[in-house]
């Protein structure tokens, strides 16, 4: 009887999770206008939907990586899937924006387990000379999910309303959990368990919470105070980790490998530039251009489609060519596309927007997998869980930082107003400034990527 190798089974399962996960992110973004109208939520409250998801992911990413290394990567991954299904159900039946926000926070913790551990499972069982291709396939599935999610989210919202976007995830997750139980045998963890660092977790959580609250409340004294406290907390976290015998992450890893540290820095900046794009374009296309949710979703998916095509190709190339070269070329293409988007106006054509998104997707597809390959190839096998979590943490903190800045811009231009066509000029100002900030991030990322050194 024909039996698939364990590496193939693990790749199929992680890739399936990578396709399902984006429904909770990109699919929900398209449903936001419908949700805001139904729950009578202000622009400021709606801005917290993606932010709370990211905040929770940042807080739980490193602890989950450490727990997975100690107790089993498959076990933590499966628990994350189950928690995601529960949070989706509770969001779907929520009667107020406050309850939706609470369960989005829970869903972010589940996302930390799914995305933070999936790459570690693949890296644990894949030979080094095939790692780039495997990571590229996984990344492509994320982008396939991101491709399908806006369109699916738009169709579900138009036909059944925003709650259907959350309901749709539940049966898919349950099927994947059944597949793990039946087909993915074995467990991957370290031979020796290390104690959990509660103080490190508390300091890092304080950093993330103060960063988000501080940036959202600038330029008030409270905002500046919280932002300063976040910087102090991060400094204390780094000092604590360097001296701890049971750290969440060995900070020496950053000093031991220039490639590891600079690749994570590049990842932070690139994802800080990109995450708010779907959120902002969803508002632009529906409120300013007057498109339906499904039509807006079809346009937004162009970026993800081109990313899905490029990611496995660039991953395979990064097994043969220095990842730095491919990733830097991708950064430069993304820089050009954000320059085009920074010129967006209320009269810009759909063709102009579509072309810019297509170019951005190609560039990001060239960047992401080679950059991930460089990160995972720069650490010892005993630290794959932490390295995978660090890689996803740099992405998530970048997403969180970028989205927090967008929240600040939204609050400045729109305040507590509700999103509507009558505020289109303020919304356009918000979008233009946000895209210019993203352009600045990508320019800096391109420079760091070029000088990171050889893997």
What key attributes describe this structure?
mainly alpha, 80% helix, 0% strand, 18 helices, 2 domains, single chain, Growth Hormone, Chain: A, 455 residues
Word description of this protein:
This is Major facilitator superfamily (MFS) profile domain-containing protein. GO terms for molecular function: transmembrane transporter activity. Residues 10-455 form the Major facilitator superfamily (MFS) profile domain. This protein has 455 residues and is mostly helical. The protein folds into two domains: 6-183 and 246-450, Growth Hormone, Chain: A, CATH 1.20.1250.20; 197-245. 80% of the residues lie in helices and 0% in strands. It has helices at 6-20, 26-39, 43-71, 73-92, 97-125, 131-160, 163-167, 169-183, 198-216, 221-243, 252-256, 258-274, 276-288, 293-318, 323-342, 350-376, 384-414, 424-450. Helix 2 packs across helix 13 (276-288), helix 13 (276-288) runs antiparallel to helix 18 (424-450) and helix 14 runs parallel beside helix 16 (350-376). The longest helix has 31 residues, at 384-414. The protein is globular, with a radius of gyration of 21 Å.
